[in-house]
Amino acid sequence: MLDQWEAICARLDVVALPPPGRRTIYDAAFTLDGTLVGIDVRTKDLDETRYADGGVCSVANFLRLLTRDLGVLIVAEFGYRDVGGRVEFGYVRNAPLHCLPVDAFRIENLGTGQVRLDKSVAEANGAIDWDRSVGEFLRGFADLAIAHYERVQQVARTRAEALQTFKETGELRLR
Length: 175
Known about the structure:
Oligomer: single chain
Shape: globular
Helix content: 25-40%
Strand order of the largest sheet: 1-2-3-5-6
């Protein structure tokens, strides 16, 4: 797809952006009327015995895209299954991340927090709020992020106290 990205964007009358670097949160991007639109292409293995973590990006990078860059991140999700060594697509769903319900997200503690999808776009499809503004989304998402950071802070405090006790007594009790 990326080898034809400029031609695809030209047909859609949007301005293609160069292929992003490894650390960019989207796989391809364009601008439309001055707005950065990133596309995160993801696959969803429909085999329920397989695990997919739903990772999107760091909390900080997600917030920077939405607030500093005033961008939008669209998830292009391809649900598939392996049928005898051949890929069979079950669905294709697309949605801007800020339109997904907040309960479709979770934050894991990798670095300073990693945004993950707890539901696929297909699972959240009936609850997508296509008219939600980024600001409305961020109010709900902020509560999720604050709760995450409070949990992490408490765990870090408990571990620091355990290490201080170890220095003083030689006994280490980590939870």
